[in-house]
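Protein modeling request. Please complete all fields; requests missing the sequence field cannot be processed.
Requester role: graduate student
Desired output: 3D structure, token encoding
Chains: 1
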Amino acid sequence: MKYVDEYRDLELAKKISKEIEVACTQPWTIMEVCGGQTHTILRYGIPDLLPDAINLVHGPGCPVCVTPVQLIDRAISIANRPEVILCTFGDMFRVPGTSEDLLTTKAKGADVRIVYSPLDAVKLAKKHQDRKVVFFAVGFETTAPANAMAIKHAHNMGLENFFVLSAQVLVPPVCSMVLSEPECKVQGLIGPGHVCTVAGLEQYEKLSRDFSIPIVVAGFEPIDLLQALSTCVKLLESRSPGVVNEYSRAVENVGNHVAQDVVNEVFSPCDREWRALGVIPLSGLGLSEQFSSFDAERVFPDVSPHSKQQQPRQCISDQILLGNKKPTDCQEFGKSCTPETPIGATMVSVEGTCSNYFRFKNH
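Delivered output (363 residues):
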């Protein structure tokens, strides 16, 4: 298939891996930020094509994994209201809250539904105007434009029974937090291609200047990631911080102004709690005052229990999200913690690091 097969060419992959081996003269620790990239890296065995000196670690780029316990509990509390239809994406169903997940809530009788687009939730609100339809919006900059357009669409239709529980988060603030950690070992970043398609490169250029590291924006196919790793290693070896766009077929330096404008109209930056990582200033998107009537947090009183514990004691998700440890360092990995019985959120989503290690690396 054109634009796919050529990015999965084994001989080309071997050629690029040889370039990396020749260029690499010392150990380097490189983090890919996006969970979709983590999935590709492990699915296609990219670590096995790299020299031993390259240590790939995996960042907090799975929005499902970083949605905090309190917000899961809030969604469950709202879903349990008899007048509510709660909608969200399928991978949110198994993320553990304090005492249960949304799948368990649905099994107990709550009206919780999987949707494939926020517009599906808007259609439900139009169809069931005697019910309150709440869309649990999760994602990075990539999903924010579609979620913003759904809210604008509901506004234009005059729907008064559609609401959004926002768990939108932003990548650059969490990257800054990771790189600021005293134990941080990361020397180079593989930037999130789809996020940059919307947001552009400006904030990553600032990150590169602030922390004097190379950042290479990459796509999601094996050749994309190998080429980005090759570029990153060469930049590290030459001590050349900066941002390089290796996903130019999709990413423009300025991003997508149309998408940025609708997001800026509907959402406003806010402090956001990240699961296992705590509150990161201005790392989230909440509804702007103009669209506050659609904000589920304002409409529905918070009666959910407030958990102070972000993760079970035996879970090391926080250290995995920071790139300090890998899933195989966890004593529960593949034992009590599996995709069927997840202890931490990183074992739930298809983009979660622990889930990908379980599926592709150790089993």
